[in-house]
C-alpha cells in the first residue's frame, strides 16, 4: 500500500459523517466507521450488499429510479445539496438522515458509482415536529 492510499483510507474511515460508496450496480464497496455507528451494520455485514440494506422499502422504487437516471445521464438533481430522507437501521428502526450525493468518475470521466455522506438528524427532526405540533394545539 502506498502512503497516499493509506492516507485516503484513513480520511474516509475517520470522517465524522457516514460515507457509503456503491458501484454502478448499487453494491456497497466502501463503508466507514461512521456508517457502522449510524446504521448499525459492521463493514463486514455491509460490504458487498445492495443499498437496499439501508433504504426503507417504501423509498426503494424512487431511489433506484433516480440512481439509474443519474448513472445514465451523468448528472444528479441533488448533487452537493443536502437532502432529508429516511433510512433503515440494522435494528429495523427508521432514521431521519441528511445526505449529500455525488457521482464518482474514473480518469476518463466515465461514471463508476455513487458516493453518499450521511448524518443522523432524527433527534432534530423529532424536536422540530414536536414543537410544531405544540404550536398547532
What does this structure look like?
- With 137 residues, the chain is of the alpha+beta class.
- 40% of the residues lie in helices and 28% in strands.
- It is built from five helices and five strands; from the N terminus they run H-E-E-H-H-H-E-E-E-H.
- It has helices at residues 3-14, 33-39, 43-46, 57-73, 122-136; strands spanning 18-23, 28-31, 83-88, 94-105, 111-120.
- The protein has a five-stranded antiparallel β-sheet with strand order 2-1-5-4-3, sandwiched between helices.
- Strand 3 (83-88) and strand 4 form a beta hairpin.
- The longest helix is centred in the middle third of the chain and has 17 residues, at 57-73.
- The chain is globular, with a radius of gyration of 16 Å.
Amino acid at each position: 500500500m502506498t502512503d497516499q492510499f493509506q492516507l485516503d483510507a484513513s480520511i474516509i474511515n475517520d470522517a465524522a459523517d457516514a460515507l457509503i460508496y456503491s458501484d454502478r450496480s448499487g453494491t456497497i464497496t466502501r463503508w466507514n466507521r461512521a456508517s457502522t455507528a449510524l446504521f448499525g451494520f459492521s463493514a463486514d455485514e455491509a460490504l458487498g450488499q445492495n443499498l437496499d440494506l439501508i433504504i426503507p422499502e417504501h423509498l426503494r422504487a424512487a431511489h433506484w429510479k433516480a440512481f439509474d437516471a443519474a448513472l445514465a445521464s451523468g448528472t444528479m438533481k441533488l448533487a452537493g445539496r443536502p437532502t432529508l430522507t429516511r433510512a433503515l437501521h440494522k435494528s429495523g428502526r427508521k432514521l431521519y438522515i441528511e445526505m449529500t450525493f455525488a457521482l464518482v468518475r474514473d480518469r476518463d470521466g466515465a461514471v463508476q458509482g455513487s458516493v453518499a455522506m450521511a448524518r443522523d438528524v432524527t433527534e432534530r427532526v423529532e424536536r422540530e415536529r414536536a414543537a410544531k405540533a405544540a404550536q398547532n394545539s
